[in-house]
């Protein structure tokens, strides 16, 4: 890539990063909007910006990055946010979370049709609040993901 091409690429990336930096992550609605924008940009780095990486191991980081990158392939069908206590009762608590879990960020992705049915991939991310902003929590297991037909 030429010098001019690198400058243009950096300018484009810089303007995208500035737009994402203005997201309001202090509310669940703002976090959802930031997630949708990052997802729709198809830029893994923007998705990763929503994660609290403090106190994580290389394996934890790898698992979270894989979950986020896999999700970019599918359009978002719906997002639901509900209390973490429900998830902890159903699937057990997340072990070794790097920040205190507060809510489940359940994202439904439409992944195509199978024998006339809609194929849905659902991923349950855990979110918490650190320093006044919502972020994805990283723990001992990657976000749970399920595939089903409707």
What does this protein look like?
The chain is of the alpha+beta class and about 150 residues long. The chain has a single domain, classed as Nuclear Transport Factor 2, Chain: A, CATH 3.10.450. It is about 40% helix and about 30% strand. The protein has 5 helices and 5 strands. Strands 1, 2, 3, 4 and 5 form a 5-stranded antiparallel β-sheet that branches. A hairpin with a 2-residue loop joins β2 and β3.
Report a brief summary of the structure.
By secondary structure, the protein is of the alpha+beta class. Helices cover 40% and strands 31% of the residues.
User: What Rg do the Cα atoms give?
Assistant: 16 Å
Mean pLDDT over all positions: 86
Number of spatially distinct domains: 1
How many angstroms separate the termini? Answer: 46 Å
Keywords:
single chain; 150 residues; alpha+beta; Nuclear Transport Factor 2, Chain: A; five-stranded antiparallel sheet; 5 strands; 40% helix; globular
Which helices and strands, and how do they pair?
Layout: H1 3-21, H2 28-41, H3 44-48, H4 58-71, E1 76-83, H5 84-91, E2 101-114, E3 117-130, E4 133-136, E5 144-149
Antiparallel strand pairs: 1-2, 2-3, 3-4, 3-5
């Amino acid at each position: 890539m030429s010098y001019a091409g690198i400058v243009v690429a950096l300018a484009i990336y810089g303007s995208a990063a500035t737009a994402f930096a203005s997201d309001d992550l202090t509310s669940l609605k703002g976090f959802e909007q930031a997630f949708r924008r990052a997802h729709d940009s198809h830029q893994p780095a923007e998705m990763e910006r929503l994660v609290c990486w403090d106190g994580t191991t290389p394996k934890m980081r790898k698992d979270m990055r894989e979950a986020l990158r896999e999700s970019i392939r599918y359009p978002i069908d719906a997002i639901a946010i509900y209390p973490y206590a429900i998830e902890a009762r159903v699937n057990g608590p997340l072990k070794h979370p790097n920040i205190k879990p507060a809510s489940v960020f359940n994202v439904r992705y439409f992944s195509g049709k199978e024998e006339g049915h809609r194929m849905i991939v659902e991923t349950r991310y855990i979110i918490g609040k650190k320093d006044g902003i919502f972020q994805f929590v990283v723990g001992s297991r990657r976000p749970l993901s399920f595939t089903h037909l409707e």
